[in-house]
Amino acid sequence: MGLGVGILLVAVGAVLAFAVNITNHSGVDIHTVGLILLAVGGFGILMSMIFWSSWAGPGYFGGRRRTYVDGPGGPGYRREIDDF
Question: Number of folded domains in the chain?
Fold first, then answer.
């Protein structure tokens, strides 16, 4: 589950738990379903944030890395090398 799905579950759960005012006699409590969705969405957001920080986030592996080395012109002469 990603961050977007977790936020969606929290939003739907909050609407069902706090905004819907329906008395349903079919055996399904809408407010309980909303609270369960809130809990699952919150857990999904938490896990997504934990794993996001451990994998260094997006763009970590795709960027260009630059290396500067001293060249033949002495210590003041620097040229740029692109490492891939």
Answer: 1
Token digits for 42?
Answer: 């919150």
Question: If residue 66 lies in a helix (H) or strand (E), which one and from where to where?
Answer: strand 65-70
* Contact between 6 and 44 (Cβ < 8 Å): yes
Q: Give the domain extent around 46.
A: 3-83
Residues 39, 55, 53, CA angle at the centre, nearest 5°?
A: 55
Model confidence over 32-70: pLDDT tens digits?
999 999 999 999 999 988 887 665 555 555 555 566 555
pLDDT digit string, tens, across residues 2-31: 889 999 999 999 999 999 888 777 888 889
* Run of H or E residues at 8: helix 3-14
pTM above 0.90, yes or no: no
Tokens, residue 68: 């500067």
